[in-house]
Amino acid sequence: MAEIPTTASAPVDTTEPAAPTTGRTSEPAVLVLEDGKRYEGRAYGARGRTLGEAVFATGMTGYQETLTDPSYAGQIVLMTAPHIGNTGMNDEDEESARIWVAGFIVRDPSRVVSNFRSQRSLDDDLIASGVVGISGIDTRAVTRHLRSAGAMRAGIFSGDAAALSHGEQLALVQSGAQMSGRNLSGEVSTAERYTVESTRERVGSVAVLDLGVKTSTLNHLAERGFDVHVLPQTATADEVLALEPDALFFSNGPGDPGASDRHVDLLRTVLREGVPYFGICFGNQLLGRALGFGTYKLTFGHRGINQPVLDRATGRVEITAHNHGFAVDAPIDRVSESSEGFGRVEVSHVDLNDNVVEGLNCLDIPAFSVQYHPESAAGPHDANYLFDRFRDMVIASKESKA
């Protein structure tokens, strides 16, 4: 074991470090929605212009996990909580190697960062990552509008871009890409395969298709006794099966599941080989399509850490973390038969706000999925048990084969 250096003889600096402050300015900025709505505020983060799909996230905590979640690629995220940035940023809570949001909207950036774990301010990271943001607007009004009209294309303009005419800004927004039909997994996936070794008594190995996987997901799998082989989204079924994994896992990720037919075909091939499967978020939508169900775009989606979901098997209501704009179109009132030959399928979880399908359970093959995020590093942790359920399913599958 390496010797721990001692600093006992070093002089002790008792001066309190000054609390870092955020970059609040009076520089103008404007948020423009594709239907012509405009909201004027102050520049926040990097200066310039950015385009994306405007969505709102309802979490009161966890803004760092939100920003670094690859599922938010291509989206301008509005935080409904009014006060953002007070705990700063650190290297431990990153869900990936970078910030992925296309833009960031807050009402009131914290004036001072105050937390013992903070290493820098949120504004510092937004600027370093080139993320254009806006503050000082009525985020409640924008949220109510998006809730009624639906998520839509938007743009944030600051710096020189704030001086563009209203017509020029709106034209840029309306020329932006729609989220429907977009395959974004190639932008967020790892380029090379890597392995995270088990941190508990080994259960087996799991092949993880990285469609935008989060660090906390990999940690949960390793803590359940899995050697985790993370594969780029370009992996083929032959490459997955060559690993002889004890299970397959599809991660969360951005984009339209209807534009990921290659991943659906991969999943069908591996399922037919009897490999147990667990998918979350995007992985739930892809399982739905692999089983023969359709998917559709929600009006404004589910994003935040306070979504009530019913586990229909236990009758337990879980408060869960979500980030999805698409959902599986499967009947919730009966057990269905997979049109692709995978047997009986039931909807295992339902959102209590709008009856959206939040989970699928295959009754004749070892496969299940949920639409939300059981890893939820920022909390709540009601759904962590799903990783235990996955481990138990893999153990039972190995025993039956033996």
TrEMBL record:
It is an enzyme of class 6 (ligase). It catalyses: L-glutamine + H2O = L-glutamate + NH4(+); hydrogencarbonate + L-glutamine + 2 ATP + H2O = carbamoyl phosphate + L-glutamate + 2 ADP + phosphate + 2 H(+). Signal peptide: none annotated. The active site is at 281 (nucleophile), 373, 375. Its EC number is 6.3.5.5. Residues 1-202 are annotated as: CPSase. Residues 1-27 are annotated as: Disordered. Residues 27-157 form the Carbamoyl-phosphate synthase small subunit N-terminal domain. HAMAP family: CPSase_S_chain (MF_01209). Small subunit of the glutamine-dependent carbamoyl phosphate synthetase (CPSase). CPSase catalyzes the formation of carbamoyl phosphate from the ammonia moiety of glutamine, carbonate, and phosphate donated by ATP, constituting the first step of 2 biosynthetic pathways, one leading to arginine and/or urea and the other to pyrimidine nucleotides. The small subunit (glutamine amidotransferase) binds and cleaves glutamine to supply the large subunit with the substrate ammonia. Composed of two chains; the small (or glutamine) chain promotes the hydrolysis of glutamine to ammonia, which is used by the large (or ammonia) chain to synthesize carbamoyl phosphate. Tetramer of heterodimers (alpha,beta)4. This is Carbamoyl phosphate synthase small chain. It comes from Agromyces humatus.
